[in-house]
Amino acid sequence: MDQGKGSEKKKVMVAIDESESSHYTLEWYLDKLRDSIADSDVIIFTAQPNSDLGYLFASSYGTAPMDLVASIQENKKKVALLLLDKAKDIFAKHGVEAETLTEIGDPKEAICEAVERLNVQLLVVGSHNRGPVQRAFLGSVSNYCVHNAKCPVLVVKKPAV
């Protein structure tokens, strides 16, 4: 085996949000794939969706205080960091080290951009199990990633109860 290329660690990214399906995805990933990813670098990723502040500007007649806008954005960042800390704790309880990353942007685009920029070899995402009507209106992050990520994508679906 070529020593230079074969010794390089694989990168796996697990993209999460605050949903129950994301929590299930983390647990499923650690339960089913822990042994096969033992020699991989794992990145836990979450996106901070762009804030739609149109209502804020409308309610303040077009001049929203900048400190209010900054406060809203800071709150979203705190929520994202708490989510990543919780996920990292779950990984640690399973004896798996992971790094965390959060970015601002549309989740589906932010995930795919991070995959390409970080040269990720496997992307793991959960599915919210939405029906066709909900997918049409809300979109599907996992579907977008399957078609646009520059690596294989594993979609984990939580079984219906």
Automatic annotation (TrEMBL):
Keyword Hydrolase attached: yes
InterPro entries assigned: Rossmann-like_a/b/a_fold, Universal_stress_UspA, UspA
Residue span(s) of domain UspA: 10-157
Keyword vocabulary terms for this entry: Hydrolase
An example molecular function term from Gene Ontology annotations: hydrolase activity
Superkingdom of origin: Eukaryota
Name listed for the protein in its UniProt record: ADENINE NUCLEOTIDE ALPHA HYDROLASES-LIKE SUPERFAMILY PROTEIN
Organism: Salix purpurea (Purple osier willow)
